[in-house]
Amino acid sequence: MLQSKLFYKINKDKSSEIESVSHDLLVRAGFVDQLMAGVYTFLPLGFLVLKNIENIIRKNMEEVGGQEMLMPALNPKENWIKTGRWDTVDILFKLKGVGDKDYALAPTHEEVVAPTAKKFIFSYRDLPLSVFHIQNKFRNELRAKSGILRTREFVMKDLYSFHANQEDLESYYEKVADTYINIFKEVGIGESTYRTFASGGSFSKYSDEFQTITNAGEDIIYLCEKCKLAINKEIKEENPKCTKCGGIDFVEKKAVEVGNIFKMGTRYSEPFDLKFKDKDGTEKLVLMGCYGIGLGRLLGTIVEVNHDEKGIIWPKSVAPFLVHLIQLGSNDKVQATAQKIYQDLNKNNIKVLYDEREDKSAGEKFAESDLMGTPLRVIVSEKTVAKNSVELKERNKSEAKIIKIKDLQKVINNVYNLL
RNA sequence: CGGGGAAUAGUGUAGUGGUCGCACGAGUCGUUCGGGACGAUUUAGCCCGGGUUCGAGUCCCGGUUCCCCGACCA
Q: Which bases of strand B have any atom within 7 Å of the beta carbon of a protein residue?
């Protein structure tokens, strides 16, 4: 991508209304744009990151047997009446259609997936089953906040699983929990993300939240100092001692909930009469589990965890571009060299943003590059060209290296393979 | 939803009731070219609706929107 063509603008000044770090950086670097409170556009840069996150999640969901599909956001009122949630879920967006008919914009998809499953699940032979989709959710949050960390419309991955018995549900649930941990590692927040034993949900007494420790968080979690078990506030109030090791000392941390998984049991199979014939010929209710990750919130959390005073530091796995190729000066040799490197990297499927602009000073290019957070910065200038070299610097390191142009691809490959 | 702030150019800001000014950005021209460079020039603004007044960005009333705290929260 040529930087002069990229649809973005860097803004030097922080907006006076923005407080959270991720919001500030993502807006200033041109990743997202606010349409209204709690509703954001992902600009090309932000969308590239979002797609990378999406692909990591998709791959992991497929690894636990999830089949991807797509359910609609527009829902009939009747399904929400059936589960009793039309009147009890106060974040539910309700709207009127033709003939004064009532609709809901789905904040979650039990009301769609359960009745759909009823059409295809008849026998124990049809179980277990898990399906997921990655799609826009609508939640009429009383208060949207912290940029993309808490919005009214957001992209969510929700996986739903169907089981013949409790043991199967529980073993699958654990599998997904492990997969979640893996996802958070892959996107670069593994070290600060904890599977957190939680209660207070409305589906089952207990659930597991995946909480990433950061000051931007709106939740409080407690880490047992002895065994590092994480629990949420409700659990802490019920159990003064650690439920795992009996420890009594906890560290209190602010955290963002990046994922949540539930064993729903028959909560949704019952209202939709989702049953199957078991081996012994008896009819039983299907047991369900659900597993969600908010992609935008995850993206924002990645920035909260990975940044410095100059800007974002994207983990390589989700970065919009792997390489930021910066051309300094525009004499023929520098330009030809930079263009050649750009073409060669493209040929090798390296995602590269090429700053070929001639009207920007070096300092401005560096500052923008740091703000934007691309993992590898490659500089081509008169100085480097004279030595048949480029300067290469990793965003998260302070020192730069001079390397021969002929070795560039190899060095990039090495860095790339460190994923 | 309760409470608290705020709204002037794309962004950040200044403005006793008396012609809305500055900086950054953006455009053009030129000089620059390794950490937000320089000169010239251009561009663009008082949230909306009422009211008071000779005169309102400023005062009053109503509305809208945004931000923050809390409550809420698959």
A: 1-2, 5, 10-13, 24-26, 32-37, 65-74
Straight-line distance from CA A19 to C1' B6, in Å?
14
Separation of A329 CA and B31 C1' (Å)? 14
**Residue–nucleotide distance: A402 CA to B41 C1' (Å):** 42
Q: Which domain holds residue A336?
A: 321-417
Q: Are residues A248 and A370 in the same domain?
A: no
pLDDT averaged over chain A? 93
In this model, does residue A152 exceed pLDDT 70? Answer: yes
Question: End-to-end distance of chain A based on CA atoms, in angstroms?
Answer: 23
| Radius of gyration, alpha carbons of chain A | 24
ipTM of the complex: 0.93
User: A380 lies in a domain?
Assistant: yes
What's the whole-model pTM score? 0.96
